[in-house]
Write a structure and sequence with these properties.
The protein has 259 residues and is α/β, with parallel strands linked by helices. Bound molecules: 1,3-dihydroxyacetonephosphate (13P).
């Protein structure tokens, strides 16, 4: 981490938990949170649980995010949820372009670009996910994939519109596999992402953007990840469903870098 950027720890609860369970998890996090914590904490429950989690989090500093968002405000889009609706349910953030949406729901960079623009327009802070597959990494295409995903997502967005965007680098091969990127691999990708942002929007902008790492983040590996200078936080899946483990991730320890 870098002291100039406020760290963010985010939990992506994916398609887990019913209303009661999500509310209980939110309450446990609220109770266990260090009141003096300086960094940002975000949870992203399923759409059906947003309202209950919002109520449970009332009075706490924990922020609420949707896991996705549609690009239109309203209309005949069966199954979709609009940015205005997720704001109304209490969200300040929206995850966009998660690799599961790209792979399973065939979301393209063009769709992600529309969603990013819509989120910005309706005052939601996007948490934009990017990352390469194992095949792409083995074919030495990681940088090219990240460059393409970033350029596609940000196409047509002006610097003033992207000021609040958070990026999550999530190598697909590390998601849900227990195979975390090493802190050095993650740092290397994060630095590359920051350099791309610098090319797109300049040094000042790039230096202020939070880049989170996601992919098998656990209570026992968060500290070494956070010791890297360009890792500004984490987007956590499985480990964010267990209050005690996620609280340990949230309250990561700043360890000194080896060497
Ligand atoms: P896991 O932490 O379960 O690997 O999931 C990561 C992720 O996809 C967060 O968005």
């Amino acid at each position: 981490m870098n002291k100039n950027r406020t760290p963010m720890i985010a939990g992506n609860w994916k398609m887990h938990l019913n209303v009661k369970e999500a509310g209980e998890l939110a309450l446990a996090l609220k109770k266990g949170l260090d009141p003096d914590l300086k960094h940002e904490v975000l949870v992203a429950p399923a759409f059906t649980n947003l309202w209950a989690v919002n109520a449970a989090l009332s009075g706490s500093k924990i922020l609420l995010s949707s896991q996705d968002v549609h690009w239109e405000e309203k209309g005949a889009f069966t199954g979709a949820v609009s940015p205005a609706q997720v704001r109304d349910a209490g969200c300040t953030h929206a995850i966009i372009g998660h690799s599961e949406r790209r792979k399973i729901f065939l979301e393209t960079d063009g769709i992600i670009n529309k969603k990013l623009k819509a989120a910005v327009k309706y005052g939601l802070t996007p948490v934009l996910c990017i990352g390469e597959t194992l095949e792409e990494r083995e074919a030495q295409s990681t940088y090219r994939v990240l460059e393409t995903q970033l350029a596609g997502a940000f196409a047509g967005l002006k610097p003033g519109e992207v000021s609040k965007v958070v990026i999550a680098y999530e190598p697909v091969w590390a998601i849900g596999t227990g195979k975390t990127a090493t802190p050095e691999q993650a740092q290397d990708a994060h630095l590359f992402v920051r350099r791309q942002l610098e090319k797109l929007y300049g040094k000042n902008y790039a230096g202020g953007v939070r880049i989170l790492y996601g992919g098998s983040v656990k209570a026992d590996n968060i500290d070494s990840l956070m010791a890297q200078p360009d890792i500004d936080g984490a987007l956590v899946g499985g480990e964010s469903l267990k209050a005690d483990k996620f609280l340990r991730v949230i309250h990561f320890q700043e360890v000194l870098k080896a060497g």
